[in-house]
Amino acid sequence: DVISVPGALQSGIAAAVCAISREHPDYIGLRILTTALGGYFGSRLMSNIREDKGYTYGIHAYLAGRKEEGHINIATECAAQHTEAVIDEIRHEMQRLREQPMPDEELALVRNHMTSDLLKTFDTAFSIADYVGSTITVGVQPDYFNRQYSILQTITPEQLQTLAQTYLVDQRLCIAIAGPVK
């Protein structure tokens, strides 16, 4: 969908990929894959669209998991003239993850980033309360932390590629743009 914003200098791009619930056995692996795609500063989307091409100041992706369903959200803003190019590059990075196993060095960076974030889960009384709250509101199981850590340390590039081939497909991708219409 495109929402026309006449006179806007930038376009807001929101993309979503229909995914799976937190209960699904692939959920943690898909979370790792989504982090590689756009979940940290060194991610593929940031490296390509921000660092290499300079189309945006920032782009981010995350997996939102709920009890019954989930989705991958990708969001950015860019100069209006780069809108189509940014969308093409999002699709390109999804395709690369489907077609080529992630290099071991990249997976090591993702592991380090996610392990650091995971340890923050129990860093303060507030973060512990958030974790306990999420067990109630979104159905996080008590063993989720340990399962996540275990999968994070053992998942292979080939397993991530299989997840990309299953979930990061164009047929699951929905894109909304708010900005000037060409």
The major beta sheet can be summarized as:
5 strands, mixed
Number of helices: 7
Tell me the total number of β-strands: 5
What is the CA-based Rg, rounded? 17 Å
Please bin the fraction of helical residues: 40-55%
Mean pLDDT: 93
| Class computed from helices, strands and strand pairing | alpha+beta
* Low-confidence sequence ranges: none
Morphology: globular
Q: State the order of secondary-structure elements, H for helix, E for strand.
A: EEHHEEHHHHHE
Description:
This protein is an alpha+beta fold. It has helices at residues 27-38, 44-52, 83-99, 104-119, 125-137, 144-154, 157-167; strands at residues 2-4, 10-18, 59-65, 70-79, 173-179. The radius of gyration is 17 Å and the shape is globular.
Summarize the topology.
Blueprint: E1 2-4, E2 10-18, H1 27-38, H2 44-52, E3 59-65, E4 70-79, H3 83-99, H4 104-119, H5 125-137, H6 144-154, H7 157-167, E5 173-179
Parallel strand pairs: 1-5
Antiparallel strand pairs: 2-4, 2-5, 3-4
Helix pairs in contact: 1-7, 2-3, 3-7, 4-6
Briefly summarize what is shown.
The protein has helices at 27-38, 44-52, 83-99, 104-119, 125-137, 144-154, 157-167, and strands spanning 2-4, 10-18, 59-65, 70-79, 173-179. By secondary structure, the chain is α+β, with helices and mostly antiparallel strands.
Keywords:
182 residues, alpha+beta, 20% strand
